[in-house]
Amino acid sequence: MQEIKSNKSYVLIIIVLFVVIIYSIKLASLQLFNNNYKLSAENNALRRIIEFPARGLIFDRNGELLVYNKPNYELMVIPNQIIEFDTIELCEILDAPIQLIRENLKIAKKYSLFKASKIFGPIEQEKYIVLSEKMYKFKGFFIQTKFERTYPFSCAPHVLGYLREVDQNIVDTSSYYKSGDIMGFEGIERTYERYLRGSKGVSYFLVDAFSRIVESYKDGKYDTSAVIGSDIIATIDVDLQLYAEKLMTNKRGSIVAIEPATGEVLVMVSAPSYDPNLLTLTRLRENYATLLLDEDRPLFNRATGSATSPPGSTFKVVDALIGLNEGVITTESVIMCNYGFNIGSHIVKCHHAGGVDFYRSISGSCNTFYCEVFTRLIKNKKFENFEAAYIHWYEQLQRFGIGRRLGIDLTGESSGVLYTAEQFNQKHGKGEWGPFRIISLAIGQGELGITTLQLANIVSIIANKGFFYVPHFVKEIVGYPNIDSFYLKKNFVGIDSSFFTPVIEAMEQVCIFGTAAGIYLEHLSQCGKTGTAQNPHGDYNSVFIAFAPKENPQIAIAVYVENGGYGSTTAAPIASLIMEKYITDSLSREWLSEYMINKNLMERGERTDKPR
């Protein structure tokens, strides 16, 4: 019995010794080998100054500088190093409310007596110069330099984004960001933040009892240098962007232009817009709320975020391709139109009479033709019922990027609207709906919303005869071999390439003698499709999709103008002018350009025309 007790004692002693050894090793590691512990212990005699790197610059596709940095100054404080100072004098230099400085001092002390906190900023250049000369009066305070963005062309705010201070949620969930740091919000600044921001550096200095820097700590042994952020080459063409924005003066709507061969976005306009210089760090506080409350919603990106925009008759080219691929029509098909498509007592109106062939159905935009195509697709006998046929049609649209996010490299992308069969079951009752109940889909209306970005992608698919690259806004990250491979992959839509040729022929006819004959140019082959979408808030929305030239297309474009009327009267001329400027680097119709720039559509008017 005594022997058992003795053995237990030995075991207990061994366990205690083992624990003591482990803790001793840990303590030795912290005190002898861990520099962070050492620096923290000496924090009351050290000043730790963060060096913020300059963010990477952003250029357009032709090397024009879109975004650069200028110094931004902030007043920092280490509370335990403060010596009595003249608060009024400090506030007069900063032009800051005394209550704000006092409140920020309280917050800084609560956060840490030994760590630096931001007390005021950003500080304007003139005030920085005065403050620098008088910093000896304010012990415990020092000036920290960051950088803020400047936008020389004052354009493309929804593409570029802006910077602001991180919120507490980001601080709590990130090992990189600390309170007072800045990061990109929206646009390229947000998506490519980790490349643009670079890496922070840190320097340690010994300070005396009066908070004055004496010397570098350990000759800079523990200092690290800041690493400048990577530059980015954006895909947009700034000259074309500026011109497109000018054309959208006093209009609501959006424009997206893509290079079909690469998926690179050449232009993205959301109007009304704003000058990105309004949201620099020094001006963000005063301007953000104003822009946010503006009834025209300039902060909202209409090009990628508008989920309920009906495409109108531009959608007919998609159903034409699906109809040909499914064999419910051919290029020889002729469908009779008697000013509309009759469904009992209801009629989908049209402006045609007599037989309409395939090419005229697109060039003249016949509603009856595509109501019949849609009916044949949904009543296709190779499916067991109309619901199965609808699901098949739905899946084909998804391959075109309709009803889903494409995956662009900007935040805020909408999937648009495309009802599933189940949603129609819930709305009308299972088995209680069919092609006639949802016939508005045939002409790009009803439960269908396509963003301008998606429309531009659709016309890129047609230009490429069956595939697309996911639209993206960054061409190159300097110092990295490639952009994300996701944007370099061909995405095929499952339509036989041979069916694109007749659709393209018909789209060329649209611009020669069809609904957009007014934009015809002898020296530039344009292929397009007009749309006039219903709008409950006034005149119809003007829509146009196009690409040019017909052979080896260089640009695919979608224009959506709210309250613009016919697709041919507003959206088509805007698209044509942009395409001509991009391809020929000139304008042969200065009169048309001036007319469209000066056209004011901000006042909501009554409808004056019919959908086409």
Describe this structure in words.
The protein has 612 residues and is an alpha+beta fold. The chain folds into 3 domains: 2-33; 46-234, Penicillin-binding protein 2a (Domain 2); 238-275 and 304-598, DD-peptidase/beta-lactamase superfamily (Beta-lactamase). 35% of the residues lie in helices and 21% in strands. It contains 21 helices and 22 strands. The strands form 7 sheets. Strands 2, 3, 4, 5, 10 and 18 form a 6-stranded mixed sheet that branches. It has a 5-stranded antiparallel sheet with strand order 12-11-22-21-20. A hairpin with a 6-residue loop joins strand 21 (541-548) and strand 22. Helix 1 crosses helix 2, helix 10 (238-247) runs antiparallel to helix 20 and helix 13 crosses helix 15. The longest helix has 32 residues, at 2-33. The relative contact order is 0.10. The model is unreliable at 606-610 (pLDDT under 50).
